[in-house]
Amino acid sequence: MIAIKDMTPEEVANELSQLIRVLRAAGRNDLLLRSIGASVLEELRLEAAKTRLSRLLITKDYRLFLVDYDNIEIELTPIHKAVYLLFLNHPEGIEFKQLRNYRDELLRYYMTTAKMLDKEKIIEGVDHLIDPLDNGINEKCSRIKKNFLSMMDAYTASYYFISGHTQRHIEGSSHIWYERLKIITLPRDLVILSHK
Questions:
Q1: pLDDT, tens digit, for every residue of 13-30?
Q2: Cβ-proximal residues to 176 (8 Å cutoff; 6+ apart), any chain
Q3: 64 within 8 A of 152, measured Cβ to Cβ
Q4: pTM here?
């Protein structure tokens, strides 16, 4: 028998495939999951999704099109576009409670997507969104999600809309805290920005 280190990647994949069949036939998906690991599973999920995901084109006038789905347009109002562009520009994610730190950027996006609106209304709208005691940002994210879900299946849409991602942090041995980030998980190499 050849040692794994002496195998080609194709031979390793073939061996792995056989081992997976053995574990599945034994009904031991738990062992399979443990051996693969959650982070690798997430990477595999993303790799599998890439073949189904469309490029997202953002035009100079901030219209959003799914290029590989017959150029279907995702229609959003200017405030929804501003929120979407903010989160798209931050692949690391943003906590809703930290939105006030992104006020200027959100204001800039809203001013460029809502050229016909009064400046005072735009400022009022942004201040409404960044208020941690207001539900406005949740409502905007729900509307964005609904628009994507109306165009595609839930699994595919989950890469395009703003969703939750909890990140666990451990400081020292006794302090654990969680970041409740909101992110768009679409790989950024699938985003085409024609406005830059």
A1: 888 888 888 888 999 888
A2: 168, 169, 170
A3: no
A4: 0.73
